[in-house]
Design brief:
- The chain is mainly beta.
- The chain contains no helices and 11 strands.
- Strands 2, 4, 5, 6, 9, 10 and 11 form a 7-stranded mixed sheet that branches.
- A hairpin with a 6-residue loop joins strand 4 (about 30-40) and strand 5.
- It is elongated and about 50 Å long.
- The N and C termini lie far apart (about 40 Å).
């Protein structure tokens, strides 16, 4: 089995910062792209950031310049450093990854989510 476990969520004031972490564990051959999504209550789940195995990154426009995605391949971990958080970014943040469980086959996996609340 494969597990993705997020951590680092919490309550912050507008303009505050948080660093989210997501570690993959279990039996797998390797991990391709790793991503962060968020879901605001009543809205669709939105991809926030993506990072490839070679460290290329992609961000949704609203977070460019404020969020940074990174990964540590040796630790099978992806991070999301968030600065200048806004109240409208209150959401459950989910980790997702394309994982090669069986050689040659990549499947998508999801974490359980971590709550980020931005309020004064």
């Amino acid at each position: 089995q494969v597990q993705l476990v997020e951590s680092g969520g919490g309550l912050v004031q507008p303009g505050g910062s948080l660093r989210l972490s997501c570690a993959a564990s279990g039996n797998f051959v390797g991990i391709a792209a790793m991503m962060w999504y968020r879901q605001v209550p009543g809205n669709q789940r939105e991809r926030v950031a993506l990072i490839t195995p070679s460290y290329a990154t992609n961000y949704t426009d609203s977070v460019k310049g404020r969020f940074t995605i990174s990964r540590d391949n040796a630790k099978n971990t992806v991070y999301l450093q968030m600065y200048g958080l806004k109240p409208e970014e209150t959401a459950v943040y989910y980790c997702s990854a394309e994982i090669m469980v069986v050689p040659g086959t990549v499947t998508r996996h999801w974490g359980q989510g971590t709550q980020v609340t931005v309020t004064s």
